[in-house]
Amino acid sequence: MSDFDIRVVTPADIPDLVTMSGALGAFHGEDTRADAAALTRDLFATPPWRHGLIARHGLAPIRYARNLGTPQVQHARRGLDLHHTFVAADWRGRGVGRALLSAVEATARRLSCQYVSIGTDPDNTGARSASEAMGYIRRAPGPRFTKRLD
């Protein structure tokens, strides 16, 4: 049993998503412009354009994932792209990443997707190794990984 929980993002989580988005940008040396209004629009429109999950330890946010639907029109397949994710530094290497990625895959299956794809920063060797360890296959030309769900 883990000492964190993962659930679907609610409007009450938006401030924490903005904060963690900023932390991800800082990690990559980027100037981020995470915006509560835009996140609310994208996560809670009908139908939603993005899907979000958040992991918490008690009240503290420790990881999140934001996902986008991605079609492969030429193959008549639907996919879910793990577009944005961040793990709080104290929680890296403790299983929350694997658990959250499993929850992303469950979301994709519920949405009738045939695959999940992940993009990583080219220098993030830890994320690349973790993706491969969970069965994701690197796609050329860059650090992009896909796992078939059929």
UniProtKB/TrEMBL annotation:
Domain of life: Bacteria
GO molecular function: acyltransferase activity, transferring groups other than amino-acyl groups
Record InterPro entries: Acyl_CoA_acyltransferase, Bact_Acetyltransf, GNAT_dom
Boundaries of every N-acetyltransferase domain copy: 4-150
Repressor recorded as keyword: no
CDD domains per the UniProt record, alphabetical: NAT_SF
Alphabetically ordered keywords of this record: Acyltransferase, Transferase
Gene3D superfamilies cross-referenced by the UniProt entry: 3.40.630.30
Residue intervals passing through the bilayer: none
Protein name: Acetyltransferase (GNAT) family protein
Organism: Loktanella fryxellensis
